[in-house]
Specification:
By secondary structure, this protein is α/β, with parallel strands linked by helices. The protein folds into two domains: about 5-215, Spore Coat Polysaccharide Biosynthesis Protein SpsA, Chain A (Alpha-Beta Complex), CATH 3.90.550.10; about 250-319, no CATH class. The chain is about 40% helix and about 15% strand.
């Protein structure tokens, strides 16, 4: 497999309703030099059985497919790390097993990487809804590193719409923290961007981000999600504060804290410790690039207008 140019990395858990469509789009790629690394995180449904059924339809791909099984369920962060550790190609591309991609995705991203010598190649993506209507998301790219990281902080940190030079991760010892299953991409993608030098974009939307899997990690905001969110922010704070160019990132770190605090409060978690979370951002709220509703939530929290905050959050949840 070491001769392949792109490793497609796919964590698998509880996706029996989605894996066949995902796998068919992976094995139908117009690009041939691909290794596929699937990580079975002890899925208890028929996901792996259905995956193997699809594999049997593509005998020409069989020699380039690995299925690695965890001995016990370890979560999506560990599954992603296992996949990275097993990859051997020049570039990696993550695909979540409840999503799917266009059949020319790998070819277009890889050829753009070669053409531009990019460390990361981005592409726009579709939000896929149950009624089959889609929304195209394009605002995911900049040529400027700080702005790219800020885009991650503002809510687009995903692994999956980026082809990444594998050596960036390996040479800089970037690891996904095990146990973080909500926001694990946010904890790592900004680090990858920080160590990268060249970025490029394929204009065509290539990735289909499924919004109707009610069992996915991102569809829920639980007590564990809250814990993960705060841990991710601490990871990023520790990462950037120790860099010689920290001042470049100081303001966007405040933006990260503001966006994530507002998300916690907007979910209805309004206990005092979360209302007063990150007090250091309060004096700069009006200088941060935030949407109007986020600013209202944070201003009400900063001014201790608890009743108004509760009413505003309830109004947002009803809308």
């Amino acid at each position: 497999m070491s001769g392949n140019k792109v490793s497609v990395l796919v964590p698998v858990y509880g996706v029996e309703n989605y894996i066949e469509k995902c796998a068919n789009t992976l094995f139908s790629q117009t690009f041939t030099d691909i290794e596929y690394v699937f990580v079975d995180d002890c899925s208890t449904d028929t996901s792996i059985l259905k995956l193997k059924k699809v594999i049997s339809l593509y005998p020409e791909r069989a020699a380039s497919i690995k299925i690695i099984k965890h001995e016990q369920n370890r979560g999506v962060a560990s599954a992603r790390q296992t996949a990275i550790d097993a990859a051997t190609s020049d570039y990696i591309l993550f695909v979540d097993s409840d999503d799917y991609i266009e059949i020319d995705t790998v070819e277009l991203l890889y050829m753009k990487a070669l053409e531009t010598s990019a460390d990361i190649v981005f592409c726009p993506f579709y939000y896929e809804y149950q009624n089959r209507k889609t929304k195209i998301f394009k605002d995911i790219y900049s040529t400027e590193k700080v702005q790219l990281i800020n885009i991650c902080f503002m809510g687009q940190p995903a692994f999956w719409n980026k082809m990444i030079r594998r050596q960036i991760i390996v040479e800089n010892g970037i690891k996904i923290m095990p146990g973080i299953n909500y926001g694990e991409d946010l904890s790592v993608v900004p680090q990858i961007i920080y160590y990268s030098d060249k970025f490029s974009l394929v204009q065509k939307p290539l990735y289909h981000y499924v919004q109707y899997n009610s069992d996915s990690y991102t569809s829920k905001f639980t007590e564990k999600s809250l814990k993960d969110t705060l841990e991710v922010i601490q990871i990023l704070q520790n990462f950037f504060v120790n860099k010689p160019d920290y001042q470049k990132y100081r303001i966007i770190l405040s933006t990260l804290k503001a966006v994530r605090k507002a998300k916690i409060l907007r979910s209805g978690i309004l206990e005092k410790q979360y209302v007063i979370l990150f007090p250091e951002i309060n004096k700069n709220l009006f200088n941060l690039n935030l949407d109007f509703k986020t600013k209202i939530i944070l201003v009400l929290a900063a001014s201790k207008q608890h009743i108004l905050l509760k009413c505003f959050v309830k109004l947002l949840q009803m809308s």
